[in-house]
Structures are given as C-alpha cells and as structure tokens.
Amino acid sequence: MGAGGPDDEDNRWPPWLKPLLRESFFVQCKLHADSHKSECNMYCLDCMNGPLCSLCLAYHKDHRAIQIRRSSYHDVIRVSEIQKVLDISGVQTYVINSARVVFLNERPQPRPGKGVTNTCEVCERSLLDSFRFCSLGCKIVGTSKNFQKRKRYQRTMSSDSEESYSSSSHGKLKNKENNNSNKVQSFSPSTPPPTSVSYRTAKRRKGIPHRAPFGGLFIEY
Q1: Do residues 167 and 161 touch, judged by C-beta distance below 8 A?
Q2: How confident is residue 161, by pLDDT bands cut at 50, 70 and 90?
Q3: pLDDT in tens, 2-13
Q4: H or E segment to which residue 70 belongs
Q5: Where is the composition biased (Low complexity) (predicted)?
Q6: How many angstroms separate the CA atoms of 40 and 67, rounded?
Q7: What does the buried/exposed string (b/e) look like for 167-178 if buried means 16 or more CB atoms within 10 Å of the residue's CB?
Q8: DSSP letter string, 116-169
Q9: CA–CA distance, 45 with 51 (Å, rounded to integer)
C-alpha cells in the first residue's frame, strides 16, 4: 500500500507487540496442567504462539522470551527486559518490588487526582509531567496517524465551539440589552392628553344656595 497506509502503521512496531498486548496471561497451561509451574507468564517474541509456562520454554531455547509480571491485577514487564527490544520512550515507568516496570495496557481511572497537571494522551490517566502515555498499548494508539488526526480535529472543533459560544453570548447580551431598552420604552406610562377632563368635574353643580341681597331669604337657582 502507499505511504501513510495501515501497513506503514504496523511496520512502526515489532510484529510481536500487538499480539502480546492482546494475550491473557496467568492462566493454566493446557500442556502442563499437572505441574505446579503451569502458570503462563512467558511469551516468545519469535514464535508469537500465545502465553507459555516455564516448562514450555524448553521448546524455545534459542528464542527471545520475556516474562510478564503482575501488579494489582494488571500485566507489567520489567524495563530491563523490554527496552532491549522496544522503544518505550514517553511511557511512564513505575517501581514495583524494587524493579522498574511498564504496564502493557491502560488501566481505567474514574477521574484524575487533585492537582494533576498531566494525563495520558489516550486514556487520561494521571501521569508525571515528563511522560505522554501510561502503557505500551496507549503509546501504540496515541502515536497512530488516525488518532493524531482525530485529536487535531477535536481541538479545532473545540476552538470553533468556544469562538461560536463567545460570539453567540456577545450577540445575546446585545440583544438582551436592546430588548430591555425596548421594554422600558414600551412599558413607560404615557402622559395623559391635556384636554382630557372628567365629565363629573366639568358638569356644573346644582343646588348651591346663594344668600339673597334683601330679606335674608335663600333662593336656589
């Protein structure tokens, strides 16, 4: 295929890496179930034929084999073993049982801890500032071209959304101010016309007595 195709993505990594990450270790070996050493915690990088127990290694004497270990129910590999055959730069390492290790796959984390300033670019697990990924699996995903394109697209969409929200909020604020101004003008009481006079006030009163000039009699007009 041409440059940038799926084959190029696969060629970036050793052929054994992705199969290794998909395997389930620490299961009982089917060939040596009767042995107390039948736990499958080994992997042959040359054969890539699944997890092996220590007894299976007799058939892989001249092959490259690595040991998988476990920490809190998650698979790890010692840095001293894996760095001989794989570039693990950018992947955070941990010290477990006095040995420095890396995790094979991501580990779910409900939410980053308080004060966390750096997280895995793929699964957002809390990391030290000098690392980009929490595991080998996350590095494969996070450095793929499709992931990088999607990440750039998300950043672009996020930026556009923020600009759109800012513009929309500014427009809504102006409209609200204009509407409030219109409402004030609309609901202001109007001045009554000067010619408006009450009928009762305009009507002449009747029955007001007036004193007669002579004789002290009251005559009602």
Answers
A1: no
A2: low
A3: 445 555 666 889
A4: strand 69-71
A5: 178-189
A6: 9
A7: eeeeeeeeeeee
A8: ---B-TTT--B--TT-SBSBHHHHHHHTSHHHHHHHHHHHHHHHHHHHHHHHHH
A9: 10
> Six-digit token pair at 193?
């016309």
Give me the residues paired with residue 43 across strands. Answer: 51, 66
Q: Distances in Å between the alpha carbon of 143 and those of 13, 29, 91, 148, 201?
A: 11, 34, 12, 7, 92
Give the position of tokens 């102006």.
174
Residue type, 198: S
- Which amino acid is present at 22? R
Distance CA 91, CA 98 (A): 19
Helix/strand/coil for 189: coil
In single-letter form, the type of residue at position 125 comes to R
Higher pLDDT, 100 or 211: 100
Is 93 in contact with 102 (CB distance < 8 Å)?
yes
Instruction: Supply angle C-alpha 37, 41, 45, rounded to 5.
Output: 125
Enter the tokens of residue 175: 């409209």
Helix (H) or strand (E) holding 211: strand 210-211
Return the residue matching tokens 């609901």.
187
